[in-house]
Amino acid sequence: MADTSLEIAEMNTKQYIVVQIGSEKYGIDIGYIDNIVRMQKITRVPKAQSYFKGVINLRGEVVAVMSIRKKMGLEEDVFTDKSRIIILKLEEKGLLGIIVDEVCEVVTLSDDQIEPPATGPKKGKDSFINGIGKNGDTLISLFEVSAIVEEKEEK
Locate the CheW-like domain: which residues (predicted)? Predict the structure, then answer.
């Protein structure tokens, strides 16, 4: 009988790649991640939204790259040797790269380790968060990937 409760607990877990953006840690559902690549030359695209940095050539495929910092209204990216481009695979839109300051670790969180985000009107970077994961003493804001990649008119 104890086996079934363990199996149920295992079924309700998800893995997240934990990334650092500024001083905060964010989790990205590992199911969306196609690849993680080192920073490389990004070719600018004229007249693109301010948060689109441009495109990269990834094994012969052109991939758009976005500054997650700019999209969330944070300060400009600062590239270091730890900066990475996380390649997300999205059903309708194909591949999209997002720039993060550092990739930290992979964590597995169960449903009871995830709290809903604070309620209230979602503005700015809060609209990209769908939960807060608790990994030991560390709190990890969990990205809502669909909200990050959605094209919203900037006002």
Answer: 13-154
